[in-house]
Amino acid sequence: MNKRSRSLSCIGAFLLSVIAIGTQAADTSSLRIAVDVPYEPFEFKKPDGTLTGFEIDLGNAACKEIGAKCEWIIQAWDGIIPGLLARKYDAIMSSMSITEERARKVLFSDGYYNTPSAWFGKKSIASLDVSSGEGLKGKVIGVQRGTVQDNHVTQQFSAFAEIKRYTTADDLVLDLKGGRLDVVFVDFPVGESTVLNDADYSQIGEGVQIGEGIGMAFRKRDKELADKFNAALQKLKTNGVYDDIMKKYFSYSIKM
């Protein structure tokens, strides 16, 4: 074999290796999923420190369905999308509402649950009009920073009320019960589990439906991985596993 033909052979072998790499399925046997805790009842820690909650159980069931060993990575909400884009983990499963703004940065799965947002405060102000800016004029509102509830309150009521933003739902509820907030605006199940456990507090007004539901988030190029989770979540919705997990945490349906 002369030098030219050997070179062509080498080039051919190189191209074949490139093609092989290009067509090789991404390794999804081990995945890291980001979650912001606490956010009861979706993700929180047991007294022994282990993670639990609706999304933890559902995520583990989906990982089992696709044959992946999944590790949960705790990440504060403010940095959860930047962390995904920086490859600190492979997906986010942390009650992330599907919005147009976020969809410009990440690839969302199909929605896997939807709940209304709701206002909570002391029973003594249960008749407060939370549907208008005039009704909330002069009040101090608490929201979790960077959430759809934050966006909604900022757009609708920032001209009328003071808005305080918190990194965690726990801190927000702590300030409500400490008298530093008049009302909070959060996912209904979060308020139900963290505010309504005190008889002095109640939901105020009607629930508010925001957004297109909750989805897992992936890097835009990881469509194959998103498709796997879509198929797994769909199967869990139809084989009864989703319903069994949901009933552990809710007395009503959040399925979509």
UniProtKB/TrEMBL annotation:
GO terms for molecular function: ligand-gated monoatomic ion channel activity. The keyword ATP-binding does not apply. Keywords: Signal. InterPro entries: Iontro_rcpt_C, SBP_3_CS, Solute-binding_3/MltF_N. Residues 30-252 form the Ionotropic glutamate receptor C-terminal domain. Residues 30-253 form the Solute-binding protein family 3/N-terminal domain. It is found in: Cell envelope. Residues 1-25 form the signal peptide. GO terms for cellular component: cell envelope; membrane. Transmembrane segments: none annotated. It comes from the Bacteria. It holds the Pfam family SBP_bac_3. Belongs to the bacterial solute-binding protein 3 family. PANTHER family: ARGININE-BINDING EXTRACELLULAR PROTEIN ARTP, MEMBRANE-BOUND LYTIC MUREIN TRANSGLYCOSYLASE F. This is Arginine transport protein (ABC superfamily).
